[in-house]
Amino acid sequence: DDSITIENKTDDNVAPNNITSFEQIDENVFTIEQTIHHDQQPTPIEVSIDEHPITVDITPLKNPSLFFNLTLRSLGVIFGDIGTSPLYVLSTVFDFQPNEAQCIGAVSLIIWSLIVVVSIKYGIFILMSDNLGEGGTFALCGFLTSDRSFLSPTGKKVIIIVSLMAGSLLLGDGALTPAVSVLSAIEGIAVEAPTLNNWIVPITIIILIALFLVQRWGTSKIGAAFGPVMCLWFASLFMIGIWRVTIKPSILKAFNPWEALHYLIIEKKQGFYQIGGVFLSVTGLEALYADLGHFGRWPIRCS
Fold first, then answer.
1. Which member of 17, 137, 140, 288 has the greatest number of CB atoms within 10 A?
2. Please, which residues have CB within 8 angstroms of residue 111's CB and are 6 or more apart in sequence?
3. 149, 135, 147, 142: which is closest to 164 by C-alpha?
4. Any idea which UniProt keywords this protein has (predicted)?
5. Structure pTM?
6. What's 109-121 look like in SS3?
7. What are the counts of helices (DSSP H) followed by strands (DSSP E) for the chain?
8. Can you name the residues that pair with 30 across neighbouring β-strands?
9. What is the pLDDT of residues 121-172, one digit of tens each?
């Protein structure tokens, strides 16, 4: 149980420690008015409340069932974007037929981008920067511009401007990424069924409209629906990956970070330009922080 400390109001005409009203506003919110004599020190009043656990404090040890539930939902909502990146990353990186060394170097860049940016930067450090359990650009802006911040008024104005710019970029990403992801998926189907080439764009539009229509059902229902789908998707990627590794085990060299660095050194200018394509592998990672208030730190990390 937590406690609330309420300061008392003073009144010359009322006896000390006289509680004049006690009103319950909400399940865990109370208002208490107390009048005391002007020459008496205010007496703190402790009120016990039942505090519901916020998602940022949910751990597999404290709330195992809720933790598993949120982990599954975070797979459907957060990793629906990052998990579809393999559909178009390599085709974006290479606009020519690469040799084996180039494939290993590019895959190494992708692997270490995911490890460093997603797993380490966001998974460990960024998720620790919550604002009362909430994440995202404007939650962080609210924290840095609050009374608790050590920034000067000028610095707070700069933070607000930068946050507005970041929000604009997020809107652009939200408009671009779904279209690219769905279009790439449908193009993959057309490879096996060339007769669908003329239907790629109409099918993509129909799917996007359907996806945006179901957004009104909320994060919980969408996560519950797409969580198992993403589990099946990642399991499929894992099985296909194992199968392809048995055919070409040399691709495991990509886990060596030197291969990524060596690729950039050898390719020089072309390798530098290809970093833009490699960075597409981490598109959607901002959802890890933006949805912190929905799912919590540990469910996101474990998913």
1. 288
2. 254, 255, 260
3. 142
4. Membrane, Transmembrane, Transmembrane helix
5. 0.70
6. HHHHHHHHHHHHH
7. 13, 5
8. 24
9. 998 898 888 888 888 889 889 888 988 888 899 999 999 999 999 889 888 8
> Cα separation of 80 and 78, whole Å?
6
Domain ranges of the chain: 2-49, 55-131+177-302
Q: Which residue has the tokens 């008496």?
A: 40
Question: Could you tell me which of 279, 261, 289, 290 has the C-alpha nearest to residue 85?
Answer: 279
**Separation between Cα atoms, residue 285 and residue 279, nearest integer Å:** 11
**Structure tokens belonging to residue 235:** 């399991």
- Evaluate whether 3 touches 45 at the Cβ level (below 8 Å): no
Q: Reduced to 3 states, what is the DSSP secondary structure of residue 136?
A: coil
Angle (deg, nearest 10), helices 64-77 and 218-247: 70
Q: Are 79 and 119 in contact (CB under 8 A)?
A: no
Q: Please, which residues have CB within 8 angstroms of residue 16's CB and are 6 or more apart in sequence? A: 36, 37, 40
Q: CB under 8 Å to 17, separation ≥6 — which residues?
A: 34, 36, 43
